[in-house]
Hints:
The protein is built from 19 helices and 24 strands. It is of the alpha+beta class and 799 residues long. The model has no long low-confidence stretch (mean pLDDT 88).
Amino acid sequence: MINSYFELGLVALLPSVLAGVFTLLFRKKIIKNPYGIKEQIIIGIAFGLIAVMGTEFGIPMNGAQMNCRDAAVLTAGLFFGSPAGIIAGLIGGIERWFAVLWGVGTFTRVACSVSTILAGFFAAFLRKFMFDNKKSGIFISLAIGISMEVVHMMMVFVTNMTDADQALAVVKGCSTIMIAANGISVMLSSVVVYIASGKTIGHRAHKARVSQIIQRGLLITVIFAFVTTTVFVFLFQDTITNNQTDSLLTLGIKETSADINDASDENLLKVAKEVKEELQTKDAEAIAKEYGITEINIIDKNGIIVKSTDEKLVGFDMSSGGRSKEFLCLLGSADHYVQSFGSTSYDRTISRKYAGVKTDEGFLQVGYDRNTLQKEIDKHVVGITKNRHVGNGGYVLILDDLLNIISGPENFPIKNFSRTDEKIELPDPNKTFNMNVIGTEYFVRYQIAEGYYIFSFYPVTEAVQSKDIALYTNMFLQVIVYAILFVLVYLLIKYVVVNQIKKINGSLAKITDGDLEEVVDVRTNEEFESLSDDINSTVNTLKKYIAEASARIDKELEFAKNIQKSALPSNFSVVNNRSDVEIFASMDPAKEVGGDFYDFYFTGKSKFNFLVADVSGKGIPAAMFMMRAKTELKSLTEARLPINEVFTEGNNDLCEGNDAGMFVTAWQGNIDLKTGLVKFANAGHNPPILKRNGEYEYLKCRAGFVLAGMEGIKYKEQEFQLEPGDMIFLYTDGVTEATNRREELYGEDRLLNIIKSTEYESIKELCESVKADVDKFVDGAPQFDDITMVALKYYGEQE
């Protein structure tokens, strides 16, 4: 038996092993599309073959072939797709139908084939409509496996109604083991798939969904209801079975007792009529001796015994006793009357059975004592229970007071219970008790009638069999009904509540992402309609507040923009009216205000300073830090510090109180307009483009660390020479990193090429051409960074 359980355990693991293999293939992308038609066919065939193996290599236990055929089909449908489950079910079911041709049992052919096919469609239905094409949970999988196998067992009864006994034997032999094995097998498949998917048992990446909570709650409720009703049905059915057993036993006794009484009454009445005729020629004593009668009484019309074989009774008034009074009916219209055996009215210690017949003078009464009565009845009782049955296998025995068997089934092997091992310990009459007779257990009941013991025997196996059939079918039907109720209630809640919540959450997700034009429109019932209207009303109110706040912010940003614009030099004529230099600059912020800035100013008659800078970030914070950096650098420059010290001191000052961690890239130059010598420092900024001797190129120089990034940084002063007609073009990364809709960058090469190819009369035209080319390149794509350009052309001292 232990080996059989071990083999069945291995069989139960086969669907789990195959489920783990397929899950790993999906995870490692060896099978890229598990839900494709070809893949579903392959998976269905694989699990169908496992189902076939269950049929062909079943484990013999308790007179039946144990297998996990349904578990393989359920695993395919629940975890790998509805088509796979249906294909596996059809393969397993059809093969089971034809398997009888090579020796597989025929009794459960229809039940097994239909149940296996049903398992495939059941799994497909649950996966699609209950689990939304997702995998079922561990304990839900266990419940599904158990439920499907219960359907299988019920099909054994349904398809074999004409042979309920054999169906019960099959179900009793295999139901518990197969229900447990298939349920555990599907649950193990769930665990294996879960682990093979890379998940950890017990770990939750997020809170349980409403649908999962409903599933668990419904499952617990259904299990509680099932256990409660099963216990009630068991107790109720047990009571019914006991009552039915008592009824059958009592019916056998009553019918036999009635037959005995009828035979006794008929015999004694016959004797009474014969005595009436004999009294015309013989005296009572002679007749009593001839017929073996215990007592003969002759009663007159006044109900007085006028003559008796027992002289003590002469003169007894029949109306003076309860039992004797019954015979007074013969003084009326009755012709005869027979009384059951019992105590006499004249002496309670004496028992008689009387029969009376009407005479011209009154009536005649004839009586038997116990011994005489039994002698007479014995002639008629023998064989009275020969063909009497209790149920199908029960019988009735008639015993005398010495427990000799007077009547029973033909060839009954026991003649006297007091002299056998089957001794009877008699409880009170009309109570059912158990008794073993020749190795068979019986329910027994007895009653005493006419001095005889009437025993009714009903086989325990037959009585319990009826109860077992009722219990199994009731229990299986409950599982099926509760499973159907579970699915229907869950689907009802899902489609009426859960799906509507998902729709509302979907709309709320769009709203929280900023789409305030989204309208929540779930109106399946009054509650959701009210909720939708409330959410829409809240969003409309929010839109109103946002519009008002946006207008206020726009106004404030416009004010900030004007402040920032006024902080940047825009009067180029102050410089361009000179003959030795020309300058132009522009700044186009990505938002209303930006972090880029430029500046130019003189620190002497021939010392001209110019710079371009880019603050990290955008918007108001960048604009505020920009104002601080611009003021700091200009203040240090106007203090006539060398350009490298301007950056060194400026960096230290900007690091102070920089809790936001902002920084600035900057390129600042100082040109001596008399000589054209440019001294500069670079704090992590893009290299400028130089035009020298008619050639354009990027200035090759080593950039220092960004400003405000780290205290104590020393910056290096560098220099280069400009000749009359040379030009320098400064810019921020908003130019070179401008991005089009294809996410391509504008780039340094394109910038250099546009500057080379542009014919311009003024450097303003050059800057405008570059900006136009950037706009053409991005083709309407959003601007993500500020775009700033500064162009300076050196003419030198003029004659």
